[in-house]
């Protein structure tokens, strides 16, 4: 019996290569096989490797808001091989969230995880990280910087490449002056999935302002990018886009 058991042994690197070839839904089921598989499959390095080698089909992730029922619909459209310019509807994803006033803002995405913010009209109500492929999500705690004076804020979402398995959300809060401009540097705080708390960033002075109402971010090569402009000292006029 011992000899038979040893004959079924696979080196860890072989197990990793096999698991990397499986679809995401199968991997989620296999996390309950044993603790070592759970640690491997949920590790940042494995998720990144699996995402990188997964064949990228010509597909669009589309969001539609239905005003009649005040609800969002998330769908996947794939490019037809026979009709390359025609999008065939393939599936509507289960969206388990309700937005109080309208629709969520998509802050950004990283490794298949979407960051959603319920902040219509500038009032933050909820923050959610959602993996639609495996239908798992977490609701984040509310940020710690909440000025009473007029202000605006922006988010940036991505993965910390210096950590083994950490996703982070950065928040910049700009206070408005009497002229409703943003002359002062923003207050900054960062939320870490690993720590589970918001941490204020001290000693970093950002001299540009993110474009309000149109703000969006993209996470590329380990860095969050925004569209921003510089403000002059005598009036807060638009100087340049960066």
TrEMBL record:
Protein name: F-box domain-containing protein
Entries under PANTHER family matching the protein: BNACNNG10540D PROTEIN, F-BOX PROTEIN CPR30-LIKE
F-box domain ranges (all copies): 4-54
Database matches in InterPro entries: F-box-assoc_dom_typ1, F-box-assoc_interact_dom, F-box-like_dom_sf, F-box_dom, SCF_F-box_component
Gene3D superfamilies assigned: 1.20.1280.50
Organism listed in the record: Solanum stoloniferum
PROSITE patterns referenced in this protein's UniProt entry, alphabetically: FBOX
